[in-house]
Amino acid sequence: MKSKQYLILIGIAASSLVACENNSAKDEQLAADIENYVDSVSTNVSNYTKETWDDISATYAAKKAEMKAEGRELSAEVKEEMDQAEQKFAALRTKFESNIKAIESKQAMRDELFGAGKVGNDLSFAWVTAANAKEVYVNFVNTVERNKDRYTREDWDEIKVLYEALDNRKNEIEKDLAGADNREIAKQKVRFAGIKAVNRLTAKMDENTDSKK
Cα(37)–Cα(60) distance, rounded to whole angstroms? Predict the structure, then answer.
């Protein structure tokens, strides 16, 4: 009888040990899945928008909730892996915040130079026509001149990209431009070149001076 009870106890202990090992393996797999998810997103993401971040954050929270739902005390190894995942996630959040801020800043500049919603990430100027091209150039150069003292070197780089995209569009429609409009655009181009030459250089010098402080 005692021998039988002993065997039962051994069986229970063995079952508990197997269950514990299975639970530990499951925890390790869940933790690895969370960390792998953060690594994958960090490596492959290219669309830095608030909507993209909301999706990433929701998926990350769901994976963490799945781990928490198991209700077990985590091993030291699993806790360490979860801490690593949390650190990587925090770094990814910072990266998103920085990129979103930069994108919003660029869009604000595009809206300021050309009008709200006129130019997006595709830098399309298809809306510029022979009828409005002169006005677009005049407004663009006036706005640049008005704000030239606050532009950073990065701002001037963005302005240069926008100006070149506008110029490409002008070349496409040039045959349809009225002679007077074409001459006015040429004057605005010379005017812009002078403003940019002086102020972009000044912005770069200011940036170098600040970096040495």
Answer: 8
